[in-house]
């Protein structure tokens, strides 16, 4: 097991370097340092001197990848890519273009993101798995048929419809909760309940269909027929055998999602004015703040790799036959 973890961690290093390289290249294909200077200075007629001064203050006056004017290792180290990307492996994300410390912003914004994502994840998992088990129990019946129709209809509707419709109905017409904003402490619940409910409802369609497919595949296997032949009730077969043996494909989708919870929801946080990591990323993209975008992509890559490792490890908990060498 330890050797397996070490190998996976070593594999992660070139992956993270590649992600950094691709992110860097894509960003500077769209925006040159001169374009970033004009965007940040916010002036229609910016002088070349002001642009050069802005670039020099922030380290964007160097070559992107290779510095032919330097000698030795400085050919690669005295570049924008090395100066802006290499230090992230030491958890040094630097400062945003507005001067704020990125690491401090991430820590402060992680709480609101988790306050939305965790309840949405837990409630959504309970609701969708229970609904899928119900449809599987009443398979080939009218309840199963109309349940599938409902799921297809729900998954065919854009997530924006649920957000805008929920804000209009619950907040504007019924005036039950604020339409947007965020408050700390015990008052936070009234700002979080609507985003959480919308997140759960919008995910019912696709997740329920996915779990129902898994359960129907398991319920046709030989061990299920053997359990029925021993006299077990259908409910016992579903919950004691089918659900347990379907845990591996369920964990594949569930555990990978857990690290992404820290990154926040881009649409939900933006529409509800939640000061989380999702809205932080959207604001950075709109402001062309490469430092923040680079940091968020790097953190997302690290969390995704951690999620894949956790997925593999979780298999050993639900299936003792799986061992890693």
Automatic annotation (TrEMBL):
The chain crosses the membrane at residues 9-30, 114-138, 145-169, 189-211, 248-272, 292-318. It is found in: Cell membrane. Coiled coil: none annotated. Signal peptide: none annotated. Residues 110-314 form the ABC transmembrane type-1 domain. Pfam families: BPD_transp_1, BPD_transp_1_N. This is ABC transporter permease. The lineage of its organism: Bacteria, Pseudomonadati, Pseudomonadota, Betaproteobacteria, Candidatus Accumulibacter.
């Amino acid at each position: 097991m330890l050797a397996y973890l070490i190998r996976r961690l070593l594999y992660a290093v070139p992956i993270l370097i590649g992600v950094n390289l691709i992110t860097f290249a894509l960003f500077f294909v769209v925006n040159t340092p001169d374009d970033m200077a004009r965007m940040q200075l916010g002036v229609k007629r910016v002088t070349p001197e002001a642009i050069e001064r802005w670039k020099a203050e922030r380290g964007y006056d160097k070559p992107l990848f290779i510095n032919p004017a330097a000698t030795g290792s400085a050919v690669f180290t005295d570049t924008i890519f090395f100066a802006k990307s290499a230090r992230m492996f030491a958890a040094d994300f630097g400062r945003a273009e507005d001067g704020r410390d990125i690491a401090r912003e991430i820590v402060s914004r992680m709480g609101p993101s988790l306050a939305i994502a965790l309840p949405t994840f837990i409630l959504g998992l309970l609701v969708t798995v229970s609904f899928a088990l119900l449809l599987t129990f009443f398979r080939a019946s009218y309840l199963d048929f109309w349940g599938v129709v409902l799921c297809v209809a729900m998954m065919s509707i854009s997530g924006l419809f649920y957000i805008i419709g929920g804000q209009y109905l619950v907040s504007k017409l019924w005036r039950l909760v604020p339409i947007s904003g965020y408050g700390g402490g015990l008052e936070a619940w009234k700002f979080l309940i609507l985003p959480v409910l919308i997140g759960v409802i919008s995910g019912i369609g696709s997740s329920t269909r996915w779990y129902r497919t898994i359960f129907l595949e398991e319920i046709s296997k030989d061990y299920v027929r053997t359990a029925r032949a021993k006299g077990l009730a259908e409910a016992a077969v579903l919950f004691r055998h089918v659900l347990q043996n379907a845990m591996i494909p369920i964990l594949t989708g569930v555990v990978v999602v857990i690290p992404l919870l820290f990154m926040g929801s881009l649409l939900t946080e933006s529409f509800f004015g939640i000061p989380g990591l999702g809205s932080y990323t959207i604001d950075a993209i709109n402001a062309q703040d490469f430092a923040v975008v680079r940091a968020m992509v790097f953190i997302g890559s690290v969390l995704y790799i951690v999620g894949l490792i956790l997925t593999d490890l979780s298999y050993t908990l639900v299936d003792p036959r799986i061992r890693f060498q």
